[in-house]
Design brief:
By secondary structure, the chain is α/β, with parallel strands linked by helices. It folds into 2 domains: 73 residues, Copper Amine Oxidase, Chain A, domain 1, CATH 3.30.457; 196 residues, Zn-dependent exopeptidases (Aminopeptidase). It is built from 9 helices and 12 strands.
């Protein structure tokens, strides 16, 4: 996908590389039952460059964006997008960390489409498989590996009907290394990579909703680390697609929300996901609901709901 430059305006001109790198301390995942609004972002380092939020909005024609000082959760056109550093209030003004402006808001202004026209080849990755069963549903005891494979099998013909060539990282209940899943996309010369998963907060039965992930940009902490190292100064191959990743994640996430009516847990960033880091193409990971939540697990356990998930992803890749 060819990159398209987006004018960033004078409010952001002073905030270019070299980057002020956030502190080494990274945020930990919120408790599964915590409402997203109470997730507080890490504090930016003293040398951080901040952008006047009102001025940036004015420069770009008041885009449909909303931030809350101290919270990672922002809204773009009513859909949650998680920032790396919480906005702050300074002298009565709301200010946003410049890297969040560049990596989480500017891409959503861009003219570049979320889905490339060529090559029309997408790799669908049903999470887990073989000896790696993933999470277990508390309703019916189905394993995540079974449910993601069924989701992928339903998605494949829908995409093919839309003109996509589809490769799957696994078509049966077989084990697949994370590096091997990346290699499949590389060898195929895929335009996109979409990994399908289901979530679990067990023993918490309250957490519910959809999450969509893409790789954390350099210079920002991840929203979720799961106790893995999170070096904000490090760049991975997939960081070359930061803007395209976000546009794709946002588009798929919105279609899934509209199709299911599920709670919006947001488009988030993570650096530990091995299927994303080495990709040389836009790549996302979708969490299609919580197998630890009785109501959501009951829905996920039905073929009709998994068909709905498949149709939403296919529709997003029109």
């Amino acid at each position: 996908m060819e990159a398209v430059a987006v004018p960033i305006g004078p409010a952001l001109q002073a905030a270019r590389d070299p980057l002020p790198v956030p502190e080494a301390t990274v945020p930990q995942p919120a408790a599964p039952d915590a409402p997203p609004e109470v997730v507080v972002a890490p504090v930016a380092p003293p040398q951080a460059v901040w952008v006047d939020w009102a001025a940036w909005l004015a420069e770009h024609g008041q885009p449909p964006a909303k931030v809350v000082p101290g919270s990672q959760r922002a809204l773009w056109d009513g859909t949650a997008v998680y920032l790396g550093i919480g906005p702050r209030t300074q002298d009565g003004r709301i200010e946003v960390f410049h890297r969040d402006i560049e990596k989480n808001f500017v891409p959503l202004l861009g003219p570049e489409p979320a889905v490339p026209k060529t090559p029309r080849l997408v790799v669908i990755d049903p999470g887990h498989g073989g000896t790696n069963s993933g999470s277990r549903s508390i309703v019916g005891n189905a394993y995540e590996k079974e449910l993601t494979l069924d989701w992928a099998r339903r998605l494949k013909p829908l995409l093919e009907a839309r003109g996509w060539e589809v490769r799957m990282t696994r078509s049966e209940d077989t084990s697949a290394e994370l590096s091997g899943r990346v290699a499949i996309a590389e060898q195929a010369g895929a335009a996109l990579f979409v990994s399908l998963h289901f979530n679990s907060g067990f023993p918490n039965a309250q957490a519910a909703g959809l999450e969509t992930y893409c790789l954390t940009p350099r210079g920002l902490p991840s929203n979720v680390t799961r106790d893995f190292p999170d070096d904000a100064s490090q760049a991975w191959p997939n960081n070359a697609f930061d803007a395209a990743n976000l546009r794709l994640a946002f588009r798929v996430h919105r279609r899934l929300l509209a199709a299911t009516g599920a709670a919006d847990r947001g488009v988030k960033r993570a650096r530990f996901m091995g299927v994303l880091r080495g990709q040389n193409r836009p790549a996302i990971l979708v969490e299609g609901g919580y197998l630890s939540n009785p109501e959501e697990a009951r829905k996920i356990g039905t073929p009709a709901y998994r068909q709905k998930l498949a149709e939403a992803v296919a529709g997003a890749l029109e």
